[in-house]
Amino acid sequence: MEFKMRRFLLILLVLFLFNGCGGGGGSNDTTLNIDKDDTTKVTPYSDNPLFSKQWYFAKNSEFYENYGIDQDAHIHPFDTPEYTGKRIKVAIIDDALDIHHEDLAGAVVKSYNVKTNSEDVLPKNDSEFHGTAIAGIIGARSNTLGISGIAPEAEIYFIRVPFDEFVSESLIIDAFYKAKEWGADVVNCSWGSGDVSDAIKEAIVDLAKNGRDKKGTIIVFAAGNEDEDIGNDESAIEEVVAVGSTNIYNKRASYSNFGQGLDFLAPGGEYIG
């Protein structure tokens, strides 16, 4: 099967991680395992040297003015309860991960390669950078290096799928079952086929409804970058959260897919960099 990697736009995860929302079905008790007295304030994020350029994360007046960014184009994290993703298990299903990246030190708890049935998730070539970028946007540590992730204390569980090769249906299904086995609270999928099979859909729905001991698991899919209706894509599945992209003007990005199955739009970076 052919799958396309998608832009790094799933900033929406912050809304779930900061507010402690639950999963997609099963038990009525869908609250994530967050202790309000054991969280870190958002303000230390500004210690990261590139924080001021993270326009989607917080408003920097000078940067916004230089690029003509709409004043409401960011996600307003300071208006929400200040969760940082602590104790939240975020499973990322993607191409590869540089587990030695200095901005992810201490972030990765477990890793799994669906093809080799091993812990080796390192990139095999220069084209396999997508998963590392996604992991950084989600969970880069709040330190004095690089950027800050939207959930800098989240626990990263990385599942490698070699999307630059032919990927069988069984490997994709295995990835979702591994996320279920690990008890992931949130699963991030910045990719899609455009035409999901019944078997893969069944695995996704099972995780959404029955993950976390039947409390349900939040599964987030990027809607795609083809400026077309999402149709029968994985992101169109009712039990997942489908996220499209906005640009610096707080409008739908020109490339972002749309359609009845779309749930949210979130900052995607069009016209920046």
Summarize the model shown:
By secondary structure, this protein is α/β, with parallel strands linked by helices.
Molecular structure report:
By secondary structure, this protein is α/β, with parallel strands linked by helices. The protein has five helices and nine strands. The strands form two sheets. Strands 3-4-2-5-7-8-9 form a seven-stranded parallel beta sheet, with helices on both faces. The chain starts with a strand and ends with a strand.
Give the key terms.
single chain; 273 residues; alpha/beta; Rossmann fold; 7-stranded parallel β-sheet; 9 strands; 20% helix
Give the % helix: 10-25%
CATH superfamily: Peptidase S8/S53 domain
Total count of helical runs of at least 4 residues? 5
Main β sheet profile: 7 strands, parallel
* Pattern of helices and strands: EHHEEHEHEEHEEE
Overall shape: globular
Count of individual beta strands: 9
Number of domains: 1
Q: What is the CATH fold-level name? A: Rossmann fold
Structural class: alpha/beta
State which percent range the strand residues make up.
15-25%
Taking strands numbered 1, 2, ... along the chain, how are they ordered across the largest sheet?
3-4-2-5-7-8-9
| CATH class annotation | Alpha Beta
Distance between the amino and carboxyl termini: 32 Å
CATH architecture: 3-Layer(aba) Sandwich
Low-confidence runs (pLDDT<50, min 5 residues)?
10-44
Return Rg in Å: 17 Å
Task: Indicate the mean pLDDT.
Answer: 82
